[in-house]
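User: Fold this, then the next.

Assistant: Folding the first:
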Amino acid sequence: MKTYKVLMVVAAILTLSACGTTKNSSPYTVATELQFNMNDLVFLGESEISCEYDTYLGFIRQISKINGEPYQPGKDVKLNLSQGMINLNGKGMKLAAAKIIQDYPDATYFIKVMDTKETDVLFLGATTKRTAKVRAYKFKK
C-alpha cells in the first residue's frame, strides 16, 4: 500500500513536470537599413487629411467625418503607412490616409509635417477633430 502511494506521487510529479510551454523563435533576424537624404527625393505635393469623432463615457468612440465627408462604415479603406513612412494613430486617421494615395498614386515616401488635435469637452463625452498635413515624395530615377 505504501509503494502504491509513492507510485501515485511519482506519477503526479511526472505528469505535472511534463506539462510545459514551448516557444518557437527564428534564430535569424532580418534587418534592412536604407540610408537616403532629401536630395534623393522629388517633392510631389502636400495633402491634408482629417477625422472627426465623438467619444462617450471616455471609451465609446463613433467616427462622424473622414476628410470632411460623412463617414460610411461599409466603405472602409484602411491604410497603414507606419512601415517607415508616417505613423498615424487611431482608426479614423488610418481611414483618412486613403486620400493621400488617391492624391499622389506615384508617391513612394510620405512625411507627416503637422498633426493637430482639437477637443471640445461636453457633458459625458467629447467631440474631437484631428488634422494632419502629409507631404508626398518619390525617389529620383
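Now the next one, as you asked:
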Amino acid sequence: MIDPPIAMLAELTHRCPLSCPYCSNPLHLTTVRQELTTEAWIDIFVQAAQLGVLQLHLSGGEPASRRDLVELTEAAQSAGLYTNLITSGIGLTKERLRALDAAGLDHIQLSVQSVKASLADQIGNYSGGFDRKMKVVDWIQELGFPLTLNAVMHRHNLDDLSLTIEFAQTIGARRIEIACVQFQGWALRNRKALQPTLDQVNAAKDIVKDKSSRLRGKLAIDFVPPDYFSDFPKACMGGWGSTGININPDGTVLPCHAAQTIPHLTFENVKEKSLAEIWSKGQAFNMYRGVDCLPPLCQACERRNIDFGGCRCQAMAILGDAAVPDPVCRKSEGRKVLDAVLAEEEIEDAPPVEFVYRHL
C-alpha cells in the first residue's frame, strides 16, 4: 500500500514580476491561457484532502498574479487543508492580505533575494522590489500572520548570511529557510554565475551551527546546503513519490519540481485522471519510488534507506542518466564528473559572470 502525500505544492501560475536567475521553474513556462481555472483548482484541493494531503503550498511564479487567490485560499480552507502562501510579496496589497486573512490563510513564506536593497533589486531584476517587499512585511506584521523568510543563497549573497538571519528576527519571522540554489531549470543556465566557493559554503555551515544554537526557541533555522559540495546526497523530496506532490499551472502532476527534466517519464494531468489514481498508479511516480529501482551501488549501500540514491533529476542534469547514483555521492563514479564541473567553474580570481534573466 502506498502512503498518501503529506504536502502538495500548487503552482498556480508561472507569471512572476521578478526575473530571478536561479528560478527553478521549467524552461518552458505555462502561459496564462494554459492555466487551470478557478473551478479546476478548487476540485483539485478537494481531491487532495480526500487523498490525505494535509499541507497546501500556494506558489508560482507569483501566486498573487492570480486574481482568484483569495477564492482559492478560502476553498482550500473549506477542504480542510493547511494553507501556506509562498510569495515574493509583489502584487500583495494591505487589502488583499486582509482578505486572505479573512479567507483563513494560515501562513506566509516570503522570499528575499538579498537583505541589501540594491543587490535584491539586481538579482530579481525589479527596480524598487525590496522597498515594496518591506511594505508587505509591515502589513504581515500588522495582521499577525505567522511568517517564514525564504532566503535563496548563492555566491553573491552568501557572505551576508549573518545579516540575513538578523533580518529574519527583525521582521518577526518564526522560521528562516536558508536554501542554497539547487541547479535545476533556469538556474542551471546561471550555474557559473551563482555557484558559491567552498570557503563560502564552509563559513555558512559554521554560521548556521552557531546561530541555530544561540537562537533555539526564538527562530527556527532550516539550512539547505549546496549539493555539489556535499559528500553524500540528500533524500530528495524525502524519497521519490513518498511525501510530496506537485501540480503545474496547467494541471500536470509531478513527483518533484524538476521531474520534467527527465525525458522518458510520462506525466499525467488532473484534467484527465484523478489525483489519487495518478499518485498511486502514475508511471512517473512509480518509476523511482522506493528502493527496488536503485542501481546496484545504492542497493548495497548502508545509506539506501536514508537518501534513496539521492536526486534523480541531478543525476540527469550532470550525467544525462536519471537511473544512476546521484553524482554528489563520493562512492559513485559520477562524482568525478561533478568535481570536474566544480574545477572548471572555480571563480576565485575570475571576472564576475553576468546573470541571464528569465521572462515569461
